[in-house]
Recover the amino acids of this structure.
């Protein structure tokens, strides 16, 4: 009984491997084609991200009051000046 179970298991295993190897194998596209497609997709995503970032930047500044914008500019200048002094 045990030998029969082992033999059936081995036969089923080899049968599944044989069926998988008989599949019609489509040739994969050339590596250059894949690289071109990936580059196109990356470029599209990059453009979309830049557009979103630009819209967010505009929305942020349009929501700020005049005093807040002025304060932010002063803080940025002060931080740049402090960074220059630290480098020296």
């Amino acid at each position: 009984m045990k030998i029969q179970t082992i033999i059936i298991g081995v036969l089923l295993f080899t049968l599944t491997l044989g069926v998988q190897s008989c599949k019609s194998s489509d040739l994969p596209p050339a590596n250059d084609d894949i690289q071109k497609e990936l580059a196109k997709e990356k470029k599209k995503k990059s453009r979309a991200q830049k557009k979103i970032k630009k819209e967010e930047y505009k929305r942020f500044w349009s929501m700020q009051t005049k005093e807040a914008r002025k304060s932010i500019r002063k803080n940025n200048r002060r931080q740049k000046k402090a960074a220059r002094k630290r480098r020296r």
